[in-house]
Amino acid sequence: MAKRVVGNSRKSKKAWSGRFSHPLAKSAESFTSSVHYDVRLYKQDIVQSMAYAQTLLKARILNVAECKKIINALQLILKGIAEGKIKLSREYEDVHMNIEHLLIEKIGDVGKKLHSGRSRNDQVSTDLRMYLKNEATEVSGLIVKLQEALLDIAEENIKVIMPGYTHLQRAQPVLLSHHLMAFYEMLERDKERFAKASESADVLPLGSGALAGTNIKLDRDSLAYELGFSKISKNSMDAVSDRDFAIDFVSAAAVLMMHLSRFAEEIIIWSTREFGFLTLSDKFSTGSSIMPQKKNPDIAELIRGKTGRVYGHLMAILTVMKGLPLAYNRDMQEDKEAVFDTVDTIKAVLDIFEQMIKSTKIESEQMEKSAQKGFLTATDLAYYLVGRGVPFREAHKVVGELVAYCEESNMELEYLSLKQLKQFSDAFTYDATRYLSTKNSVANKDLPGGTAPNRVKDAIKRARKNLTTHKA
């Protein structure tokens, strides 16, 4: 049995070194260190520590002079890190132990009192919750900016008619504005998901200790108020081992990216010569290293590609958490890189997406020309027959035969005469041909949620009001 060397632990700078006979191997120190990425939590950690010092004062663990000394020192550390004058060291494992070391270095033994009743387990969870609450708000703000850009384009092109698609086949005429408002609605639900993620994070775990709570009589409700939390955790074991709130955030981000990827896919398709529905700005396109004529939608493609990155982070956190026994396990350190990269990715994507679409030119003539081909008003003609008392299935069959006739004759529905229509059904009368224009087709979808111009205008108006309320 290896003999313990008394006093050897004093050579280690680890906060937990007291029960160990030998220092951590350098390879293990490097492997376990997280300071190179969790440094971004330094503001949350210091703000939390200042509030916690006040709580320890109320609990009579600190006196007034000690509390003031700790807070003043923490403010100096905060400023030093923000200005780049203080660098954190991998030797102290993470941002939390680095800040504690800096505090003790500045004010001596008084700094050692700050961790009384607090574990890194509840400390880390508190920092991450504070961080994600703030990021959820920032992400929602970026979503709003993208929604505003969509509304601007929708208003500017309120009269533009384009083909609506199912199975990527031309289906029925719709307003371009109606199409854009579909993405607005997706983004609106994304904001709701981030609001829920923020609500999920809005629970204070501090005071839970390592897993069992603490002997110190901490005023957790007052601490929650000081740190901007609306409630405190109800179970100390759950509090330190819960990462549901992080999963909720990354899940919301994954759905957001799915929506943006769908939008990016349409931009990519629409910018091709085969569609020609829009022209991307040179500022948001790239060329080919070999083909001089190429103009590639690389920004939209990267947005589409980064969706898989965020999906991967969601699966990573779910996998880390799936088999962990209560309470805290070091595996949970793996949550942060996934969370941080998710935040960076979605914020960058939202910002560049807004810039890209604001500079995109809508090719309205090409859209409307495309809407004239492909028998897009066939359903309107079937509805006309229904209005004349023909059962829908029979009307569907009649119009299907008309489409086949037009294909054989190499003509569009709108060029059919009343005489030709009557060859297929006596229910057609003099006004039937009015149903064959794309403009009338769009106008006739006059019900809530429809593509009629007045309905789309109302939707844009409501959306403007909603965004104004959100920003207020």
Low-confidence stretches: none
The description of the largest β-sheet is: 2 strands, antiparallel
Give the beta-strand count: 6
Number of helices: 18
What's the CATH C level of the largest domain? Mainly Alpha
Question: Any idea what the CATH architecture of the largest domain is?
Answer: Up-down Bundle
The best one-word shape is: elongated
Our estimate of the beta-strand percent is: under 5%
CATH superfamily of the largest domain: Fumarase/aspartase (Central domain)
Radius of gyration: 31 Å
How many domain units?
3
Structure in a nutshell:
This protein has 472 residues and is mainly alpha-helical. The protein has helices at 26-32, 35-38, 42-58, 64-82, 95-107, 120-156, 176-201, 220-226, 236-241, 244-270, 298-321, 335-358, 364-371, 378-387, 392-409, 418-422, 438-443, 453-471; strands at residues 161-166, 169-175, 203-204, 231-232, 278-279, 361-362.
